[in-house]
Amino acid sequence: MTLKTKQEYLDSLSAMNKRIFLFGEEVSDYVNHPMIRPSINAVAMTYELSHNPQYQGLVTTKSSLTSEEINRFTHLFQDTDDLVKKIKMQRLLGQLTGCCFQRCVGMDSFNALDIVTHQMDMDLGTNYNHKFREFLSWVQHEDLVVDGAMTDPKGDRRLSPSEQADPDLYLRIVKRTNEGIFIRGAKIHQTGAINSHQILVMPTRSLKENEADYAVVCAIPADAEGITYILGRQSSDTRKLEEGDIDIGNSEYGGHEAVIIFEDVFVPWDRVFMCGEIEYSGKLVETFAGYHRVSYGGCKTGMGDVLIGAAQAVAKIQGTDQAPHIKDKLVEMIHLNETMYAGGIAASTEGVETESGTYLIDLVLANVCKLNVTRFPYEIARLAQDIAGGLLVTMPSEGDFNHPEVGPKLKKYLIGSARYPAEHRQRLLRLIENMTMGTGAVAYLAESMHGAGSPMAQRIMLRRLADLDHKENLAKRIAGIPLDEITKGEG
Ligand code: SF4
Ligand code: FE
Q1: 3-class secondary structure, 174
Q2: Which among 101, 206, 271, 462 is placed 20 to 30 Å from 489, CA to CA?
C-alpha cells in the first residue's frame, strides 16, 4: 500500500488505542466523537484527494526514496517545482475544507530533519540520516499522518530549559538503555495530534552545553504507552454538540490542537534521530520554521478564498454587491490574500538544493510570507465582517428558525433579496462567523499570528538574514562615499 483511502485512514485511526481527555472526561471512540470528527474529516480530505485523478501529480508524487507513488504530505522536496506544488496543494485543501487540515507540520518536519540529520552525519560521522530515511520510507509506504511535535510549554521564558524550576517544562531524555531512551515532558499547541499515527518529537529552541538531554528528536507511535492527549478548547466549540448543522458554521470540517503529555515514554534507538547534539537543535528549529512559515502562504490563502467568496455571496443576498465600496472591499481582500500567496510561491521558486538533496525554501521570503500572514487574515476578516453587517452577531439560532411559530416569522423578516431563501443568508453568515470568531478563527486568525512562530520571531530572522551591510554598501557606492569613511563615521 502507498495511498490509503479515506476509509482506510479512518479505520487505521480506530485501530489505535489513544488516551484522550476532553471536558474532564476520557474519550472512547474518538473517531466518531462530534467534537473531534470534523478535524478527522479535514485530514481525511488529504487521503480523498490522493485518489482523485484530477489531482494526480499535485497531491501525489513519486518518492525520492523508494520510487513508489506516495502522498505529497510524506515527500522530500526534490526541486523548486515540488516546493511550489506543496503551496498549491495547501491552497486547494484550504479551499475545500475552510480550515486547518493538520498534515503539514509532519511534512515540513520531514524535510527539515532530512537536511539537519544529513548535516549531523557529515560533521559527526553519525548514522541519523539513514535511520531517519528508513523511518520516512515506512511512513510513505504506509501513508501515515505524523504530528511534528516541537513546541514545549517553556515555563519562565527568561530561563533556559536547564534553569527552569521544573526540569520537565522542556521535553527531555530521562533514561538511556541499550534498547533505547525514555522521554518525559509535554508538547503544547499540537495541531492534529489526535489524528496522527506517529509523533515526531523535536526540540523547540537552541540549547546550552549542559542541556544535552533536551536535544532529542525521535518518533513514537501516537498510542505509545505513557502518552496522554488533552484536547484544547476553541471558541464556540460546543456548537458541534448541538442539533442541526447551520449554527456550527462549518459542520463538516475543523481543526484541533492538543496538549500531549509524555510520561517516561520508551523510544527504541532506531527511531532516535538526535540524541544530545545540542549544536544542531537551533538549526533544526530554524529550518522547520522556514518551511512552515511558507506553508501558511498556501493554506491561509485557501481559507481566504472561502471567506472572500462568503462575503461576496452574502453581499448578493443582501443586495449590496453592486455598491462601489463593497466591490472595493472585495478587491482589497483579494489583494491581501494574493499577497500572502505570492510570498509562499516566491519563497518556493527561490528554493535551493541542500547537501542532502532536499530543497529548502528561501528563508528571507519565508519570513516575509509569514509576517504578512500575521496581519492580513485579520484585515480580510474585518472586511468580511464589515460586508456581512450586524446580523452576523445578532441572528437567532437555527432552533428558532425551525420553530413552528417563530421560524416562519424569522424567515419573513430576516430575508434579504427575495431571490434567495433566508436559509442561504443564515448559512453564509454562520460561515463568516465561524471563520472570523468561531472555531474556524483558531486556524484563520490566532494561528496565523502565532503558528510557526509569533511575529517577533519573523522580524528577528529578517533582521538577521537581510544582509543590511550589503544594502548599505550599495547606497554608499552610488552616493560616492568611500566605504571605510562611513565605517569610521559610525564608530
Ligand atoms: Fe497545514 Fe496550515 Fe494547518 Fe499548518 S495551519 S497544519 S500549514 S493547514
Ligand atoms: Fe500551524
Answers
A1: strand
A2: 462
Instruction: List the catalytic residue out of 60, 75, 104, 211.
Output: 104
Count of all residues that appear for the chain in the document? 491
- Structural domains in the chain, CATH included, are 284-469 (1.20.140.10)
Distance 93 CA to ligand 1 centre (A): 10
100 belongs to the catalytic site: yes
Pairing status of strand 146-149 against strand 198-201: parallel
Contact 191 CB / ligand 1 (< 6 Å): yes
Mean pLDDT of 300-307: 98
For residue 117, CA distances in Å to 133, 205, 378 come to 10, 16, 37
Contact 447, 435 (CB under 8 A): no
Q: What is the DSSP letter of 443?
A: I
Contact 330, 121 (CB under 8 A): no
User: Which DSSP string do the residues of 251-311 spell out, in sequence order?
Assistant: SS----EEEEEEEEEEEEGGGEEEES-GGGHHHHHHHHHHHHHHHHHHHHHHHHHHHHHHH
- Is residue 328 within 8 Å of residue 255, measured between CB atoms? no
Average pLDDT score over residue span 163-172: 98
CA-CA distance, 11 to 4, in Å (whole number)?
10
Give the ligand 1 atom nearest the CA of 94: 8
Q: Which three cell numbers stand for residue 46?
A: 488529504
Instruction: State how beta strands 20-22 and 227-231 pair.
Output: parallel
Neighbours of 211 (CB within 10 A): 20
Cβ(109) – ligand 1 distance below 6 Å? no
| Nearest ligand by distance to the CA of 39 | 1
For residue range 176-190, list pLDDT tens digits in order: 999 999 999 999 999
Q: Is 457 in the pocket of ligand 1 (CB under 6 A)?
A: no
Is the distance from CB of 267 to CB of 181 less than 8 angstroms? yes
Ligand number with the minimum distance to the CA of 193: 1
pLDDT at 490 over 50: no
Q: What share of the chain is helix, strand, coil (3-state, %, to 5)?
A: 55, 15, 30
